[in-house]
Amino acid sequence: MATDPRDPGESYLAFWREPLQCTLTTLRPDGTPHSVPVNVTYDPAAGIARVLAGRTSTKVRNILAGQRAAGAPDGTPAGAPVSVSQHARGGRWATLEGRAVIRTDPGAVADGERRSTERYGRTPRENPERVVIEIHLTRAMGRA
């Protein structure tokens, strides 16, 4: 089922509040997918999902290599195409798709850490190289 990522319904939101590990898929410069386990937070009101990452990680490098400037001639929004997914027993699954940008400012990183602590019940380990992958959502789908 596809739905509006800003208004996906209560059961979908409840599923995204469960502290489940997720998978982030980015595209390498050669166009092949790179999928890795991550923790994700979802802010439907803002239409944004967030992932904490190390500044030099492959996922961050892939996003930086794939970013487009805002206002591209073809109308594509800024950022690199990515998806995040989670699944659980009983055939429940959810995927969020969008365009990712890297946020390095301390306020965005602190906000990402706070959100991750709320969802997963533990404070992320200290990492002075931390950045936030901010995904501006274009699609939500799943069966929650």
UniProtKB/TrEMBL annotation:
Residues 12-139 form the Pyridoxamine 5'-phosphate oxidase N-terminal domain. Residues 69-81 have a biased composition (Low complexity). Residues 68-127 are annotated as: Disordered. It comes from the Bacteria. SUPFAM superfamilies: FMN-binding split barrel. Gene3D superfamilies: Electron Transport, Fmn-binding Protein, Chain A. Keywords: Oxidoreductase. Residues 111-127 have a biased composition (Basic and acidic residues). Pfam families: PNPOx_N. This is Nitrilase. It comes from Streptomyces physcomitrii. The lineage of its organism: Bacteria, Bacillati, Actinomycetota, Actinomycetes, Kitasatosporales.
